[in-house]
Amino acid sequence: MKVGLFIPCYIDQFYPNVGIATLQLLEKLGCDVSFPLNQTCCGQPMANSGFASLSKSCDKNFVSNFRGFDYIVGPSGSCVLHLKEHLHDEQHPGEAEHIRKHVYELTEFLVDVLKVEKLNASFPYKVGLHNSCHGQRGLHLSSMSERNLPAYSKPQQLLNMVNGLELKMPTRSDECCGFGGTFCVFEEAVSVKMGKDRVADHQQNDVQYITGGDTSCLMHLEGILKRNGSKVKTIHIAEILNSNA
To answer: b/e for 160-198, b at 16 or more Cβ within 10 A?
Structure first.
């Protein structure tokens, strides 16, 4: 299985350990992983700001870097959803379509493609799980509480395989953290209040870590935790699933 590793730009710049953990985890699970060195931003920030037409060069570069892979995997639900919904290349439409159909968020890939049933991982801490909106409502990584359907959660399924981990779910398990990409810039006060509410919900469970599949959401929560002087830390789910703490 030939896998192209897609590392979003903000992870590459600010949280490189998330990319390293993703690579190591996929290799542990038997994937032949390659990291295209010329990859850049997927174009999501421009699209979210209403300038999708300006992201065509990002699309072309993405197709150029990731053509020929069986699967493309990235540790970011929001970026993966953007690619699934918006990636196009007029010069290589077939290759762009293949990528749209074969690009996966990490936990989605582990559960749906690799069908992982056991992990050699250990993380002996109390952990709260944050469900990011793009992952939950766009990629359907977990069920939505307002819908009368059987409950499921791919991230939770994987975390339950980690030795020593005590998973604590917040009261409002699918509430937005307030990050929302450019929303946190244009609606700063609302964004911060939403983030504080999320943090307070997790802190009621006396967690030591908050995890999730989107580093952008975790970055938002991390900033609030640090400003409040909290000892609670944030950690990407890839780092937990790859951990032997």
So the answer is: eebeebebbbbeebbbbbbbbbeebeeeeeebbebbbbb
The DSSP code for 113 is I
* Cβ(206)–Cβ(1) below 8 Å: no
Enumerate the domain spans of the chain.
2-113, 126-241
- CA angle 69/235/43 to nearest 5° reads 45
Could you tell me which CATH number the domain at 126-241 has? 3.40.50
Q: Can you give the pTM of this predicted structure?
A: 0.93
pLDDT tens digits along 112-161: 999 999 999 999 999 999 999 989 999 999 999 888 888 899 999 999 99
What does 42-104 look like in DSSP terms, one character per residue?
-SHHHHHTT-GGGGHHHHHHHHHHHTT-SEEEES-HHHHHHHHHH---TT-HHHHHHHHHHEE
Q: Is the pLDDT of residue 245 over 80?
A: no
CA distance between the termini of the chain = 29
d(CA 149, CA 153): 12
